[in-house]
Batch of 2 targets.
Target 1
Amino acid sequence: MTELTHLTIEDALTGLKNKDFSAKELAEAHISAMEGARDLNAFIVETPEIALKQAEESDKRYASGDAGLLDGIPFANKDLFCTEGTQTTAASKILEGFVPQYTSTVGQNLADAGAVMLGKANLDQFAMGSSNTTSAFGNVINPWKASDGKDLVPGGSSGGSAAAVAARIAMGATATDTGGSIRQPASFCGIAGIKPTYGRCSRWGVVAFSSSLDHPGPIARTVKDNALMLQAMAGYDPKDSTSANKPVPDYAAAMTGDMKGMKIGIPKEYRIDGMPDEIQKLWDQGAEWLKEAGAEIVEISLPHTKYALPAYYIIAPAEASSNLARYDGVKYGHRSKDAETLAEMYAKTRAEGFGDEVQRRIMIGAYVLSAGYYDAYYIKAQKIRRLILNDFEKAYETVDAILTPTAPSAAFAIGENEDDPIKMYLNDVFTVTANLAGVPGMSVPAGLDANGLPLGLQILGKAWDEETVFKVGGVIEEAAQFSALPQTVMSKAA
Amino acid sequence: MSLDEQTVRKVARLANIEIQDDDVDRIGTQLSGILQWVEQLGEVDTDNVEPLANVVNIDLHLREDEVTDGDCADKVLANAPEETQGFFVVPKVVEQEG
C-alpha cells in the first residue's frame, strides 16, 4: 500500500470507504508526519488530540454509513480562521493567547463534512506578505530546497498551509487570498490552490485584513482535491453580508477534460519586463496543451493590468487600517504593561503587538484615508478598480477563461526581497487583478525551472464560474504530469 | 514627494501606533517610497469612472429586527486582558477633581 500521507484526498476517501484503512490510522500517519517536519515551522499550534478525536468519530460514521464529503481527511487550518477553544493568532503577537469562543463558518463547514483538523497553520502576520517572513512565530520553510541547499520561502501569506500540503503533512488546507495569498504559495510549493469568486466562501470568523478583497479558499495537491475541498467550504452564510445566496455546483463533475469550443485568452499585458524566459516558455507550453485538447487560444488585452498593484496598495491598507483598529488592548489580545492613560495604552499596545509590515500598512491606510488625501488616493484607486473589472468583463465577452503564469519567479531564498517593500509586493503582479475584480483564479503546478523548483500556471475564470476554472485546470494538470516531490519529502522516504 | 517628520508623526497618531524618535526617518522613507510608487495611478484618466467599493452587486440583506444572539457575557469577556464583575477594565479615563 502507498504511504498514507502520499494519497490524494480523492484516493483517501476511496480507501476509507473500502475500509483499506481507518480515519484514525490516516490521522496518526499525518500527525507523525507533522511531528517529523517541525523544522518547516508550518504550524503555530498542533492539535493532534482534536485530530484523533475527530478521526474516531469519523470511523463511527463510516461504520454506520453516514460519512460526509470529506470524512476523515486531515487538513491544516490557516491560523486566520477562528477555532472555538483553540488559539487563533493571525501570526501576530497582538493576538497571542487569544482563544476564540466560536468557529469560522468555513471551518465549521469542513468539520460538518467530517474533515479532521491537524493544527493551525503559520502565515504572514495578518496575511500581509508574500514570503511568510512576517509571522511573529517564525518563518515557514519551503519543503523544496535551492540547489545549494539554501532555505527558500514557501510564498505567502498562506505559507504554512502550502508547506504542510506540499510536505505531505496535510492532505489539504484552508487558506485566504487577498492579493495572491493562495495562488502564489501554491505555485512556490508545487501544489494547487483556488481563490473562488468573491462571496463564494464566507468570511465570517476569518480574521479580517481587507474585507472587499479577502477570499477564503482551499489549497491541496491536485485540482480534483481542490474541487472536493471547495465543495465543502463554500456556501451561503447569512452571517457574512457579502456571502452569495447561490447554489454551489458540483466542482469535481465539471472536470470533464472537454475543451472543444472553448476560447482561452492570453493577456498581452502579462508579458512583463524581466520575466524569466522559462516562465514565458511554460506559459506558451500551457497554451499549447490547451490547444491540443481542443481549445482555441486568443490574444486578449487587459489594459489596466499595470495599475492593479498600486491600486491594491491603496485599497488594501485603507481597509486594513479600519479593520485593525479593533486591536486596542481593551477586549482581547495583547495589552501593554507600561501605559498609564487609555491613549497611551492604545498606542503602546499596537506598537508592541503589530509587526513592522502590519504597522507600515496601517499607516499607509491612515494616510490615504486622511482629510485632504481621500479623493486623490482612495477614490482614485476605487476608480482604477472599476476599470480593472471592466477589463475582465470585456475580455470575458470573447473568452471563457484566461491563462497566465501564477508568479513572476519561483520560490526565492529567505531574506531576499526584504530590502524594499515594493520588490516584495511585485510577487503578486499576476494574481492581484483577480482580487480587485472578484473573479476566480487557480494555480496549478505545471513544471520545474532550471533549478528544479516548481512553477505554476494560473487559470482565471468568470465570476461564479469556478467550474470552467476546474475544467481548464484539470486539463493543464493532466498534460503537465507534475510528479516531482520536494527534497525534504524525498529524503524522508529514502 | 517625501513625508516630513510632522506628517509621519501625524500618521502614526491617526494609526494610534507609538513610534520611537529614531524610527521617524526610516518610516518616512518607506511610506514615501510606497506613496511615490502609487502616484503612477495619476496617468490614468478616471474622470467619468464610478468608484468601485465592492464587486458584489447584491443589495445588503436586511433581517428582522430581533434578538438572535446574546446572553453570553462570559464568552464576551473570556479573552479580556482585565475584567471585573462583568466589565472590561481600562486605565482611568476621567480624573477626579480635587
Note: The CA atoms of residues 60 and 72 of chain B lie 27 Å apart.
Target 2
Amino acid sequence: MANAQTLAASLNPATSPDTVARAELREIDASARWPVIIFLVSGLIWLLIGTGFALISSIKLHTPDFLGDYQWLTFGRARTAHLNSVIYGWSTNVAFAVAFWLMARLSRAKLRHGGLLIVAACFWNLGVTIGVIGILAGDSTSIEWLEIPPYATPLLFVAYALVGVWAIITFRFRKSEHVYVSQWYLLAALFWFPWLYSVAQIMLIFEPARGTVQALVNWWFAHNVLGLWFTPIGLAAAYYFIPKVLGKPIHSYYLSVLGFWSLAIFYNWAGVHHLIGGPVPAWVISAGIAASIMMVIPVVVTAINHHFTMVGSFGALRSSPTLRFVVFGAVNYTLVSLTGSAMAIRGFNEVTHFTHFTVAHAHQGMYAFFTMVMFGSVYYIMPRLLLKEWPSATLIRTHFWATAIGITFYWVELSIGGWIQGTEMNNASIPFIDVVQHTIPYLFLRSVSGIVITIGHVAFAINVVWMLFARRPAGATAPTLFHPPAALQPTPAR
Amino acid sequence: MNRGPLIFLGIFFALAFSWTGVVLTNQIQFGSLTPFYDQNDGKTYPEKRSGLAERGRLVYQDLGCLYCHSQQVRRPGFGADTERGWGDRQSVARDYVNDKRVYLGTMRTGPDLRNIGARQPSADWHYLHLFDPRLTSPGSIMAPFGFLYEYRKVLGERSPKALKLPADYARRRGLDQPGYELVPTPRAEALVAYLLSLKDTYDFPEAKPYVPKTGGGAK
Amino acid sequence: MSADISDRPPGEPAGASDEQLQNIHSILLREKPEPTEGYSPLPLMLLGLMSGLVFFSAIYLGRYSGGFDPLVYDERILPGMLEAGGPPAAQDPKIIGKRVFTNCATCHQTTGLGLPGAYPPLAGSEWAQGTENRIIRILLNGLSGPITVESKSFNNSMPAFGPLLRDDQIAAVLTYVRSEWGNNAPPVSPDKVKDIRAAVASRSGPWSPDELLKIP
C-alpha cells in the first residue's frame, strides 16, 4: 500500500495538509485492520452466545421447569454464563477493538506490532471460553462478576499484559501534541482495569479476606468494572464519534476536564452502594452513597457537553447509523446514571435493593448505554478497515429498531415490576409467595423483549458476515445510511 | 491536560484513593475480626460448620444459589426483613468470620436464607423442596434440582433417607413404582446440611438493636 | 493516476491499482476531520449545582458515618449513642406470634390450610384448639407418626423448635394459631410453656400422636 504522502500526492501534488492527514488516517486504519477485526468478530460471536444464555435464563424465571433436567443449564449456571459471556466475551472484546482503533487514530500513530494484539485476542478468548465452560460445569466461584474459575484467569492475564504493553507503546509514539479527551478516558480505563481485576483475584480467591471484607472488595471491583472500564470506553467513543460524524468541535474543553476528573474521583467509591443495609460498617456505606450522589456532576457535565455539541444538528440522526446508536447510548448514559444516583439514597434503596429494578438498571447501563455506543462505533469502523460499505441498510435499520425498542421496553417494564416487588416485599403482611407471583408477568415481558433484541442481533450478525465476505468494490462507494443526508437531497426545481 | 505523566499520576491517585478507603482501611479495621467467646456458654460464636456442611457450601456455590437468594438481614425499620421472620436482628460482620466465601447476594427472587436453618429446621422439608419447589410451595418459581436425586431400586430395605412424596404427586410424576425409592445423592445431603447450618442466632454486643431516644430521659 | 510509467516517482512500486485508489479516495475524502474541542466556558448554574451537591454529601457523610467505627452497622447511631436507647418496649404477643409463624408457614402455609397428603392444616384443627399440654409438647420436641387431623390422616415428621424458640415466642405463636383463621381457643401463656419445658427436660426425640393423646 502506498504511504500517506504518495497517496495524497497521487490526488494532486499540491494537496492540502488536511487531505494528507486523512491519508495518514487511511494508513493507520490499514495497520489496525486484523487485530481490530479479530476482536470485533470474537465479540460478535460472544454476543450471540450471551444472548442465547440470556433467553434461557429469562425463560427459566417464569417457566422454571424449562430445561429443568439439565444440571449444566440450571438457572444459577445459565445466568452466570450469560453474564460472563456478555461482559468478558462481547463487551470486553468490542471494547478492546474500539479502544485500539480510537487510540491509534487519536495518537496519529500506526498500530505497531499488530501481531501482539492478535495473540492477545487468542489468549483472551481462549480464557473466556474455558471460563464459561467451567461455569457450566460447576466451577463458578460465585463471586459476582468474577465467576470465571481460577484456572482460566492466567490466560486472561497474559492477554491483558500484551494489550497493556501495546497501549503504552502506541501512546508513547503519538504524533499529536494535544491529548484529546477520548484518550484520557482510554488510558485511564486501560490502566484501571488490571488493577481492579488483580486486587479482586488476590483478595477474594488466592488469599481471601476474612468475612465481609470480601463483600467490600467484590463490589469495589464489580462496580468499577462498570464505572472505570466500560463507562470510560463508552464515553471515549461518544466523545469521538459525535463530533467526528457531525464535523463540529466538542462544546467545551473545560467541561470535558471537569467531567473526566470528577468521574475518576467519585465513581470508584460508589461501588459500596451495592451493600446498603448490609453487614459492613455504616461509614463506608455512607461514603459510597455520598460518592454516588456526587456522580451527578460528571453525568450532568457530560450530558451538557454532548447535548450542546449536537444542538443544531439533530437532523443528522435521520441518516447516520453511527450517530443514532451513539446518541441513543449517550442519552441512556445520562438516564441510567441519574437513576443510579437516586437508587443509592437509602429511602429509595429500601425499595429497590434485591429486586428486579436493579436488574433493569444494570441492563440499561450495559446495553442501552455501552452496547449501543459500541454498535455505533462498529458501524463507523468496519467500512474504514475493510474499505467496503455495509451491504444492507435494511439490516441496519432492523438492528437499530429491534434493539432500541427491545431494550427500552425491557428496562421500563422490569423497573416497574421491580418497584412493585420491592414495595410489596417491604410489607410483611403480603406473603412472600404472592410477591413472587406478582413479578411473573414482568418476567414474561422481559423474555418477550429479549426475543426482540435477539432479532436485532441476528440482523447485525448477518450484515457483518456478509460484509466480511463481500468483494471489495471497484469504484467509488457511498456510505450505507438510513436516509441520504439532507445536503444531498435533490432540491425541487423552481 | 497534554502531559502524559501528569495524566497518569492523576489516574493512579484516583483509584488509589478508593482502594485505600474502601478496601485497605476496612481490611485494617475489621479484617481480623475474630469469633466472640462467651464466658457463660464456654463456646465461641459463630460456631464452625461441620465438614458435611462445608461440602454443602461448595454445592451452594456451584449451583449459583446466591443469584436468587441473599444472605444478609437488614436492620429493623429498613425494609421488612425482621418482620418477615428472616432474622431477629441485623446481620453483622462477625456473623461471617467463619465463612470461607461470603455469599451476601444481591437478589431476592427467593427469600433471604441467612437464618433458614433456624426458620426451617426440617431436613425432610428441604429435600422435598429442592427436588420440586412447587411440591412444598405452590406458585414458586425456584428451579427444580431433580438431578440432585436418584430414583433407584430398593436394595433390601427402604433407605431411611428416601423422600416421602405425597401419593398423588408421586403418581403424577411416575415416581410410585413399587420396589423403587427416591433418594438424595451425597451432594443433596451436603447442601441440606449447609442450609441447616445457616443460623445467626447469637446476640453479639455490637448487634444490640438501636432504639432511638424518645423525648425526656431515656432511663 | 495515469498508467504512464514515467509519471511514477522512481523506485516507488505501484502500491495499488487505479480502481482501488479511486475507492480509497472516496472514503478518505468524505470523512470529516478528526474531532477537536471547543472552549465554551462553564455554565454558572453548574457551579451552583456542584456546590450544592458537595455541601449535601458532606453533611450526609458527617451525620451517617457512625463515628467511622467499624462496629457500627446502623447508620442512625452516632458515637456515644449506643447505650442511650434502653431495652426495646415489650411487644404485643400477636405481633411476635405472627412473625414467628413465618417459620411454620413454609409447611403449614400462611392460610393455615397445610398441604394435603403432607402437612396437616391448623385452621379449624381440633389439635390446635385442644388442650395446650399437647401442642406445647409438639413445639418443644417435635412430632412424628400417623396422625388424624380434621378426619384426614397424615404421616410425617415435624422438627423440634424447643432449642430454637424462647418461651414467650412459643406462647405467642400458639396464641396466634389459636385465634387466627376462625380458630377460637384460649391464649397460651409463657409461664405454662416454661413449666412444660422443665417437665420434659429429660426427653429427647419427637412425640408420637398416640403418646400425646394419652395426655389430658
Note: Strands of chain B lie at 36-38, 43-45, 149-153, 180-184.
